[in-house]
Amino acid sequence: MDPNRSPDAVLNETCWSDYEYCKNTGNLYCCAKMMAEITATEEASKRGLELAVVVPSMTMGPMLQQSLNFSSSHVARYLTGVKPTYPNAVAAYTDVRDVARAHVLVYEHPDARGRYLCIGAVLHRAHFLQLLGDLFPQYNITAKCEDDGKPMAKPYKFSNQRLRDLGLEFTPLKESLYETVTCLQKKGHLPLPVVPIAQKRAYL
Length: 204
Known about the structure:
This protein is α/β, with parallel strands linked by helices. The chain has 8 helices and 7 strands, in the order E-H-H-E-E-H-E-H-E-E-H-E-H-H-H. It has helices spanning 19-24, 28-47, 70-79, 96-108, 125-135, 161-165, 173-186, 197-203; strands at 10-11, 52-56, 58-60, 90-95, 114-118, 121-124, 157-158. The radius of gyration is 19 Å and the shape is globular. It starts with 9 loop residues before the first strand and ends with a helix. It comes from Aegilops tauschii subsp. strangulata. It holds the Pfam family Epimerase.
């Protein structure tokens, strides 16, 4: 998260969020993640350790825990109607299983060190919700942007080449989203779709 980064710049392992911007906009989660990585890097250097860090974006896919986290609530609030509008913003997404595989690959490669961006896709929120609606048309997902009339924010370019070089193949976002929603349904966070009686009979 850096408002001064050009939308044409390629996001890679050399890029960091703007700490002051995150703090001033109340994104303390991002601040905490930055401080944790900086502290770990400094401590590793002091102790003579070689540190490798996997840096995931917003994580989609099935959950192990029962409760919602930030990423799963990001999806659920649009499907439950809690969010009547969406922001004119872009976000990066990755699959939770890809994050797990990335950690294994980095651990198993003796030459792995430094930062590894774990990003599978970058979408504008409108396109994210369109994909969600195409997969689950039974939910009433908002089509209203908070910034109606303003130019649409441009998705930024990114590089996940370092993880690809280690052998990671990223899961398509469509698959991740589908499994996110079906998991939320199974855990009771989303209502199951109601199939009309006539349609049920057609299945018999």
